Amino acid sequence: MANEKGDAGHVRWTLTRLGVAIFLSMNVMVFTLALWSRDVYVDAALGGDARSFHELFRYASLVLTVPVLFLLGGPLLDNILADWRCRSAATDLLLLVGVAASFIYSLASTLYGDGHVYFEVTCMVLVAVTLGRWLEATGKLKTTEALRALENLLPDTVRVIRDGEEIVQTLGEVNTGDTLHVLAGERIPVDGAIVRNTATIDQQAVTGESEPVVRQTGDEVFSGTLNLDGDLYIEATAPGGAGTLRRMIDAVAAAAQQQERYQRLADRIARWFLPAVLLAAAGTFALHYFWHDLPGAMLAALAVVLIACPCALGLATPMALWVALGRASRAQLLFRDGDSLTRLADVKVVCFDKTGTLTTGQAVVETMIVASSVSTDQFMRVAATLAENSNHTL
Questions:
Q1: Which pTM value belongs to this model?
Q2: If we measure between CA atoms, which residue out of 205, 153, 159 comes closest to residue 182?
Q3: Would you state the pLDDT for residue 155?
């Protein structure tokens, strides 16, 4: 886990932090159950030992909550600081205010030995937030893996005709106007036009059409498509790495970095929601302090902040989006942007206008029929010999 890098390492590290925090939080919940059971009995019925255990449980809850704050609250604080540097305030700030308020109040109650503690609130809010972020990161990882699978369709090296000779170059060295040689069974590396020969092309990676099409001299071909049976010479109409497949990959990658409309709405609401909540909490504190006492005023203000914790805005929206995108990518469905996914809720009818679009388009050997005069082993040896030097897709 420590050696993993990139998105996969981030997802694994987030899951590790979340697992440790859940374990600690469950123990805090057990201590909380014991602490709140005190309200079932009158204080006079509690002996000295019972009071000592209650104090022990309070301090134990404090000790277990501190690691959760560092494990899960630290990344949340990093996000807030990044938002501040961009002069924006998203839902993370209001989440942190609620977490900090519950922890500070509980810490003061523990140190002074008076009042209730709410360490379980601190832990569970952080766990819920991080769970949503982990699901979001997992969805992004699945989308990234789908993009990498598309990138793997393009070869690293290509055969280019230079001054009448065939040389091998990297894909990035191909320029518009270069002539490329593509053998049967190879992926077409660039967008171009066929200048010699005819071939059957599998275009499903680009068009979704599983039925191969015949292309001949003068016809256009696209990067990422598969040359099934021809020996083609193609004139590049775009530089290497800048063809149709690359534009598809870039479009989906850009969509992965964009917020969909409900997520943008949530962040816009959060910018106004936070000052309103803080103002309401301050007003609640002042009224209760004037009419009652300081502990009651602090509890009332804390309740306002925690009730306003925007879990629905800050968690449900991105989590639902990225879980859906992750599921779609596993089904080989790529969306240009998040808004396209949310608009599916209004779709009543889906029409498919291409024959074979819903099939996999992958030919497999289902049955072998061997003549009685030939043994199966002998047949397999001959077939293996033929396949060894063949570029046929089967």
A1: 0.67
A2: 159
A3: 86
Active-site pick, 43, 156, 353, 377: 353
Measured distance CA(187)–CA(244) in Å, rounded: 13
Burial annotation 203-238 (CB, 10 A radius, 16+ → b, else e): bbbbeeebebeebeeeeebbbbbbbbebebbbbbeb
Sign of the four-CA dihedral 377, 382, 385, 390: negative
Give me the domains of the chain, ranges plus CATH numbers: 6-150+251-341 (no CATH), 157-240 (2.70.150.10)
Show the CA angle centred on residue 136, arms to residues 133 and 141, nearest 5°: 125
Whether 92 is catalytic is no
Which residues 6+ apart lie within 8 Å of 36 measured at CB?
A: 116
Residue with tokens 């300081």: 294
Amino acid at site 268: R
Q: Which of 31-35, 89-93, 230-234 has the highest mean pLDDT?
A: 230-234
